Amino acid sequence: MMTKTWLITGAGRGFGLEIARAALESGDQVIATARDLERLDAVLPRDEARLLTARLDITDAEAATQVVSDGLERFGRIDVLVNNAGYGQVGAFEELSPSRIERQFQTNVFGTFHVTRAVLPTMRAQRAGRIINISSLLGLVGTDWWSIYCAAKFAVAGWSESLSRELAPFGLSVTAVHPGQFATDFLDPTSLGLGDVQIDDYRSLDHARRSFVAERNHEQPGDPVRFAAAIIHLADHDAPPARVAAGTDALHSFEIRAHQLLDSADEWHDFAVSTDAVVDADV
Which of 147, 168, 248, 274 is deepest in the core (most CB within 10 A)? Predict the structure, then answer.
């Protein structure tokens, strides 16, 4: 099997770190990026032949282009892009200022766009490449207190599905991965943005949700190491899907959402067809 070169964002911890480790262990080459380069160099093995680490804030489009250029200079090609970098934004919609909402989209959505845009010219030239976008269970199912994070992850999933069709003629595949709850540091205070507008009506919701987050932190059922192994397998698959669940909870949500859509189509069938133009049968 051909040695692949991976570009992984947010590789300093969590999913990104485990995917980088798994790719190196499988014999591949890795361009690992994170905002904190010192941490990145501390947690990944020193391997000058197969590992390039780089500081990258994905909201900086020029920096993303430079990282891709440096990676191509070192390894000659990029075969797999894993768009993993991002953070969680919690709080009721009204409790998030416009600046908080814009920052969430600048990172989780537009930052993902920047890195992908930087990689696509070389993948198209190769007529080969895999793009794996880490969405979320909350990119499939909306829930209270996470509305803006859901909006961002829904955006990534919808864009991924469309991009997969655009790029298929060039031999490229795009997959949105929807992880459920995994035992990473995603729920750590350093990984979550909180609401910055206090509204009394939401106080009980905030208290309940913050307690839930504190209780679940590092107790989630998913195993990040096994997740990384699954991503390595996904990158090797001949026909990867446009969307895939990761974790039993995410799989269950896929099934529930499928039934919800079918039930809605059945219950609201007459409403849907009532909006069609009327065609005169005698014409």
Answer: 147
